Amino acid sequence: MEVLQDMSLPKPDVGVQAFHLYNEADPYLRPILSSLNALYAQLYPALLPLLNRAAVFTHDSPALVTVGILLLFLLISVQILAFVKRMLMWWFRMVVRVVFYGLLAVLVAVVWQRGLGRTVEDLVQWGGHLGEVWWREYRRWEGYQNQAAASQMKGTKAGSGWR
């Protein structure tokens, strides 16, 4: 019954809630605000001439302001690119993990369906075929390399080529 009563009561205005929150936090914020006001009172006379001189300098040479704005845009773009890089790396890691665990699940399913002995035999046979293809390609490219070296040696013996 209390829940219905709480729901039926009018809600306080947002401004009232903010004022109540300020009054609750005031004892904790008062020392911080007084320290900031004291710091402001001490730094204002020292910083005002420097800020005025900087304003006059930027008014006299607007190219420096342009360079500063360009550097700010460069900094922002570098931050955006770093964020994009982090996002891409996160997605890439996730895809690699999904593929790894997917392959692991497929391997477990194959072993479950065909049995361990038959799966090992198939893997050994498949590895043998892969090894044959690798050696055949290795010999082919080694032959190409030997032909290139022989033609280069023949070219240097005949006196042709760059010296």
Q: What's the SSE blueprint?
A:
Blueprint lengths: L1 H7 L5 H47 L1 H53 L1 H42 L6
Please provide a written account of the structure:
The chain crosses the membrane at residues 63-84, 90-112. Keywords: Membrane, Transmembrane, Transmembrane helix. The structure is a single chain. The protein is an all-alpha fold and 163 residues long. The chain has 3 domains: 9-60; 62-113; 115-163. The protein contains 4 helices and no strands.
Give a quick set of tags describing it.
163 residues, 3 domains, transmembrane, transmembrane helix, APQ12, membrane
Please report which band the strand proportion falls in: under 5%, 5-15%, 15-25%, 25-35%, 35-45% or over 45%: under 5%
Largest sheet: none
> End-to-end span in angstroms?
102 Å
- Class derived from helix and strand content: mainly alpha
- Fraction in helix: over 70%
In total, the number of domains comes to 3
What is the 3D shape? flat
Kindly state the number of beta strands.
Answer: 0
Q: Gyration radius, to the nearest Å?
A: 38 Å
Mean pLDDT: 88
Short summary:
This protein is mainly alpha-helical and 163 residues long.
